UniProtKB/TrEMBL annotation:
Main location: membrane
Lineage: Bacteria, Pseudomonadati, Bacteroidota, Flavobacteriia, Flavobacteriales
UniProt keyword annotation of Membrane present: yes
Name of this chain's protein: Lysoplasmalogenase
Protein source organism: Wandonia haliotis
Similarity field: Belongs to the TMEM86 family.
Any single Pfam family the record assigns to this protein: YhhN
Length: 241
């Protein structure tokens, strides 16, 4: 299959598999979950490898591939129900977000060399993200600390929340690269924050009905948009936005 046709068909394939995975999870068809969930990130990993020659920077390719591969590991850890692998899953996704931070930081450094201005709306969004972080931790941590089984997770969850918020801020500060790449990356990062927020509220407070639907739909969309953003940024010259 030609690469252009593959990229056009990828969102459709991801949509179908995500729908099947959500349905399987909601109806407790565990075997089907084990089959479909890893397929989602495997498709994105395969796409990055397929387009590896398009990357002008080996570091960008490496960081993106690392982020997706670590996310795949996190998916596998978290989907296994026979044993509690939450901590390895959390660690995998933490490292994935660190990789995304490095991926976005490369563009931020390039922007700073070009002396791009930072607009007021960017400061506002940074403030909103930091405020959201404080409120979320203020709501979550008391519930985590109140349970003797989850109390040891207070510090790991706090670190994770800080890192994913940083990833979102870095996505915001990429402004100055290709316009479409910037927008897709920022939207993807925000969807990732939404997905992990719903996951945390569902896991520690159990207040989100049909949580799998919201977690997986926003998660897959986030991973796809960030991947697409990185690919556009490597194949289309930067323009001012």
């Amino acid at each position: 299959m030609e690469t252009k046709k593959w990229m056009k068909g990828l969102p459709v394939i991801l949509f179908i598999i995500t729908g099947v995975e959500i349905w399987a999870d909601l109806t407790d068809k565990i075997g089907l979950v084990y089959l479909t969930k890893p397929m989602l990130l495997l498709l994105l990993v395969s796409t990055v490898i397929l387009y590896r020659k398009a990357f002008v920077s080996k570091a960008a390719f490496t960081f993106l591939l690392a982020a997706l591969t670590l996310s795949l590991g996190g998916d596998i850890f978290l989907m296994i129900r026979e044993t509690d692998l939450f901590v390895p899953g959390l660690a995998s996704f933490l490292l994935a977000h660190v990789s995304y931070c490095f991926l976005f930081w490369k563009d931020i450094r390039r922007n700073s060399e070009g002396k791009r201005d930072v607009y007021t709306w960017q400061y506002i969004i940074v403030f909103l993200l930091l405020s959201f972080l404080v409120i979320l931790l203020g709501v979550l941590l008391p519930h985590i600390a109140a349970n003797s089984e989850t109390k040891p997770l207070v510090i790991p969850v706090t670190i994770y929340a800080i890192v994913i918020t940083t990833m979102g801020i870095f996505a915001l500060l990429r402004r100055g690269i290709n316009v479409r790449s910037f927008r897709l990356g920022l939207i993807g990062a925000l969807f990732f924050i939404v997905s992990d927020t719903v996951l945390a509220l569902s896991l520690f407070m159990d207040i989100i009905p049909y949580s799998t639907l919201w977690i997986m739909s926003t998660y897959v969309l986030a991973q796809y948009l960030i991947t697409r953003s990185a690919l556009i940024n490597t194949t289309i010259p930067a323009t001012s936005n």
